[in-house]
Amino acid sequence: NTPYFLENNTITPLAMFSGPVFPEWFGAVADGVTDDYAAIQAAIDSRVALGGGVVMFSAKTYLSSSTILWDGAPVQLWGSGSNIQPGAGTTLLFPSGLTGGVRIKNGVNGRGSRSVVQNLRIKGSGVVAVSDADALLGIGCGLLVQANAAQVINVVGEGFEGNGAMLLSGVGVIDVSINANNCYFEHLACYNNLVNGFCAQGLDSNTGTFIKLDC
Which three-class secondary structure state does DSSP give residue 110? Predict the structure, then answer.
């Protein structure tokens, strides 16, 4: 069942296809009930293996049981809308207890920098708030940006037991020496999170740009 593509007049298997991919091609169901974590992570890992690329999400709800994480290449997650209106757009749904639902890291030699998350809603299942100290480490966070020059555009972070979204650098054992500089946030909305909407923390989270931040 592996898809093949015609790319540059060559029949190309999915693992070598350089264009945008969908988690459904890797087994995602996107019904909001089935755990799509492995499929989403496999789609991201396939783009990392090629040095970067785009993962596209349909206007559906994807349940992920674990943190979606990458640090080996610039990956772009493109949703189909931030789901401000009921029944529209892309929602990534996460359980409580994670250190980031979606987590971007610099990685070795900053390879994860310049990643993008746009046009989707990241929704948590928080009922009890974490402590302020844990929240400052990224525990219970929805979108956790720990990379340089990341872009977050038209994203909603909602319902997490820590911070809805966070810019975090050089804190504790999570990432000792990372930077999170020159990041760009536009139309970020953080609702109903149990500690903060948005939080910037760390030794080197500098020169961020924020346009229409709604928390």
Answer: helix
